[in-house]
Amino acid sequence: MNVAPSPEKQQELLEEIELFVVRAKGLDHQQLESGSLRITQKIDNKFISLNVKELENVLSRSDTEGKEFLQVNFCSGKKILLTTTLIGFKPIPLRGLDLAKLPRVVTTPDVASVFDAIQDALDAADTDVHEVSVLKRVYEAVLAGGESIGFDLSEERRWVARIPATITKISA
Q1: Structural contact between residues 89 and 144, judged by C-beta atoms closer than 8 angstroms
Q2: Which residues contact 38 (CB under 8 A, 6 or more apart)?
Q3: Among 45, 47, 46, which residue's Cα sits nearest to residue 37?
């Protein structure tokens, strides 16, 4: 756990985040009475609340195309990336899943994309049980990563609960 900056510095960090979000076309924000800032992604209405007391640092960055984004570091050691449209986060490492094969940063739309890939794999004429198993672990890693930074992904958890735990191949 990292040491928190002064309350004044944390307020400056929150204001820096708010200024970025105001300019971001794909994000909305709302100041909460608790001193928190709720940031909502317009693409899927998913939101997180940033508590000013949890902020450690905010770093202005740019991607390979020169587009600006913010890296928000929390006192807990967690991090998020704020782009002009999405909130990025790290997938959570799971046993038996090679995180090197996943993007280092994912977003909530990735949850739906992985779920679609699971559905496609299940619907395939020659369902690959191993592929479905790996995709389910990827889904769980992304889901857990989003939940760890404050997204409510309970609906997406219900989606995966409907997938059978074991898949048997049907032969003609």
Answers
A1: no
A2: 29, 30, 31, 32, 47, 48, 49, 50
A3: 47
**What 3-state class would DSSP assign to 38?**
strand
Cβ count near 133 (within 10 Å): 15
Closest residue by Cα to residue 14 from 65, 50, 66, 67 = 50
Residue with structure tokens 């300019």? 23
The Cα 97–Cα 54 span in angstroms is: 30
Residue 114 tokens, joined? 């992985």
Beta-bridge mates of residue 17: none
The whole-angstrom separation of Cα 83 and Cα 75 is 21
Beta strand ranges found along 13-140 (DSSP E)? 27-31, 36-41, 47-51, 55-62, 68-74, 79-82, 87-88
Token pair 């902020």 is at which residue?
55
Which pTM does this prediction carry? 0.89
**pLDDT, tens digit, for every residue of 54-80?**
999 999 999 889 999 999 999 999 999
Measured between alpha carbons, how far apart are the two ends of the chain, in Å? 57
